[in-house]
Design brief:
The complex is a heterodimer of chains A (239) and B (314).
Chain A: E1 4-13, E2 16-26, E3 31-35, H1 42-49, E4 57-62, E5 65-66, H2 72-78, E6 80-82, H3 95-107, H4 110-123, H5 139-151, E7 157-161, H6 169-184, E8 188-192, H7 196-202, E9 205-210, E10 213-218, H8 220-224, H9 227-234
Parallel strand pairs in A: 3-8, 3-9, 6-7, 7-8
Antiparallel strand pairs in A: 1-2, 1-4, 4-5, 9-10
Helix pairs in contact in A: 3-4, 3-5, 4-5
Chain B: H1 5-19, H2 23-48, H3 57-74, H4 78-100, H5 105-125, H6 127-130, E1 136-137, E2 145-146, E3 149-150, H7 157-179, H8 181-191, H9 193-198, H10 203-229, E4 231-232, H11 234-237, H12 240-253, H13 260-279, H14 283-297, H15 301-313
Antiparallel strand pairs in B: 1-4, 2-3
Helix pairs in contact in B: 1-7, 2-7, 2-10, 2-12, 2-13, 3-4, 3-5, 3-10, 4-10, 7-10, 8-10, 12-13, 12-14, 12-15, 13-14, 13-15
Classes of the chains: A alpha/beta (239), B mainly alpha (314).
Chain lengths: 239, 314
């Protein structure tokens, strides 16, 4: 059984069908890339899975248990953590507080929560910036901190919404390595991304959506040669 | 030494009536302490949780009316009535919270304003319960003796002791609450509500809880108002300007501080009171102007600024 099963997921905004009868599975231990042109509905899919939006219809199961319709905080507690496309730090709190709050929700003990914060922050490479305000970090730093904060909730599945957007080449390299390290620690990763080169390299499998519907699903090498995908990104040859 | 300071201050405060018998000064002290309790209560929600309420008069009025009605109808002594006034305040805050917290930011603030007005109109028109615009009057308070001394309700001293204890309890409750786990969650909610949800905090429940505590403390203070002035009507205890004054005290004194509301209340009861004397209802313009100046030049409030200056010197 897959870790996450999405079946027949649909979401309408008024007359606009943002996600249309979308089905895909996420297997435990993989890195799954969710890609598609601008406006394809990728972030909406994340918002549906994490409870920030309610599906119009369809079903989302984590380990066979239905989680569609749960509030975001309940989804997190069931084991799915996320980051945001536009970072949402707690700007006036320190980096350490940002992450230890997330651990505190679960740990019930300030000492343990703080230790967990230090551990995850070290994991993402912010071990030396614990006590600066979150707003003082660079964008790359804030994205890492958000990852640490998500990890501190103790997830089985981590959803990363454009973790590479706005990063320079060097930072992108680091972030890719970090995502692979997170997967190697036993956490399944789904990422939405625009940086094609990176996603093709680190994903085990890619799901391509267009106008809210799935148009391809397979290993990166197969998907890039799929005529439907090429049309979606570049239009028809000679058109 | 530094830890003992609040306790010494509390003790001195409770001993004030032994040294001061001037009834006017005691009255000013009572006013300041009542405003302090209200500022502390408002600050829990508005400062710590970042949910700006313009409707706290609803809980204040509910507390005042509960105390008065229970005494006049059922003969229940007002000191029990005050506690029940707090409970009624908290109970009405729960459905209000569940409705208004569906909105965020300024929309939440405006909805609290609207709800408070609705409650004022209910109090004004539900004549069989509230006596409508005529209001409720207590002519004499029941006899009580404490440690063998009969309490003289015609003097200010007993009221001073009661409200001093209330203000101190409110500050202690706020202090303990914001340092506990639910208090930490408020920081997350204030900073970014979506991110707070995303780390597993049930933001709706956390906000409803802090609103209920805030409304309870406000309701108790409202009950004290009824006991002290022995008269309430909808236009004294449900007034918008009451809600605004609570905001004023917390903002001027210092958002997210325990001591700030004391400073804010002293300020309101002295300097602001002068403007009220001179300008009649024009004093609201002064409140607004002064709040703008504070937000622009002293965003952490008077107390917050002083505290920072002291910390830097050390």
């Amino acid at each position: 059984m897959a870790l996450l099963e999405v079946s027949g997921l649909t979401r309408d905004f008024g007359g606009l069908r943002a996600v249309s009868d979308l089905s895909f599975n996420v297997e435990a231990g993989e890195i799954l890339g969710l890609i598609g042109p601008n406006g394809a509905g990728k972030t909406t899919v994340f918002n549906l899975i994490t409870g920030f939006l309610r599906p119009t219809s369809g079903d989302i199961r984590l380990d066979g248990r239905c989680i569609s319709g749960l509030k975001p905080h309940a989804v997190v507690r069931s084991g799915i953590a996320r980051t945001f496309q536009i970072v949402k730090p707690f700007p006036n709190l320190s980096v350490r507080e940002n992450v230890s709050l997330a651990a505190l929700v679960r740990a019930n003990d300030r000492g343990k929560a703080d230790a967990e914060a230090v551990r995850t922050l070290t994991q993402v490479g912010l071990g030396d910036r614990l006590d600066v305000p979150a707003s003082d970090l660079t964008l790359s730093g804030q994205k890492r901190m958000e990852m640490a904060r998500a990890l501190a909730t103790g997830p089985r599945l981590l959803l990363l919404d454009e973790p590479l957007a706005g990063l320079n080449l060097h930072e992108t390299e680091d972030a890719c390595g970090l995502i692979q390290k997170i997967r190697d620690s036993g956490i399944t990763v789904v990422l939405v991304e625009h940086v094609m080169k990176a996603i093709m390299r680190i994903s085990d499998r890619v799901v391509v959506i267009r106008q809210g519907a799935k148009i391809a699903d397979g290993p990166p090498a197969e998907v890039v040669n799929d005529p439907g995908v090429i049309t979606a990104y570049f239009g028809k040859r000679g058109a | 030494m530094k830890k003992a300071l609040p306790f010494i201050a509390a003790l001195v405060l409770l001993l004030v009536p032994l040294g001061v018998s001037n009834q006017f000064f005691l009255h000013v002290g009572i006013t300041v302490l009542m405003w302090t309790s209200l500022g502390v209560a408002w600050n829990l929600l508005g400062g710590y949780a970042g949910q700006i309420s313009f409707g706290h008069a609803a809980f204040f009025g509910a507390g005042a009316y509960t105390t008065m009605i229970l005494f006049l109808r059922f003969g229940l002594a007002p000191w029990y009535g005050m506690a029940l006034g707090g409970i009624v305040g908290a109970l009405i805050s729960i459905p209000i919270g569940l409705i208004c917290f569906r909105l965020r930011g300024p929309y939440f603030s405006l909805s609290t304003l609207a709800v408070a007005e609705i409650i004022r109109l209910v109090a004004l028109n539900w004549e069989s319960l509230t006596n409508g615009p005529v209001g409720l009057l207590i002519t004499s308070l029941p006899h009580v003796s404490f440690l063998g001394i009969t309490v003289n309700w015609e003097r200010k001293e007993p009221f001073f002791i009661i409200i001093a204890l209330l203000a101190l309890c409110s500050m202690l409750a706020a202090y303990l609450f914001v340092r506990a786990r639910p208090g930490s969650y408020l920081a997350a909610i204030r900073e970014d509500e979506d991110a707070a949800e995303a780390i597993g905090i049930n933001t709706t429940r956390a906000k409803v809880n802090v609103l209920a505590l805030s409304a309870f403390l406000t309701g108790v203070a409202g009950g004290f108002y009824g006991l002290y002035f022995r008269y309430v009507d909808p236009d004294t205890v449900f007034l918008i300007s009451l809600s605004i004054e609570m905001v004023f005290i917390a903002v001027v004194g210092g958002l997210r501080t325990i001591g700030g509301p004391v400073v804010g209340a002293v300020f309101l009861a002295t300097i602001a009171e002068l403007f009220r004397d001179r300008l009649a209802s024009g004093h609201l313009i002064f409140y607004g102007l002064f709040m703008m100046l504070v937000i622009r030049y002293l965003p952490e409030g008077i107390w917050g600024r002083v505290r920072r200056a002291l910390n830097m010197r050390r």
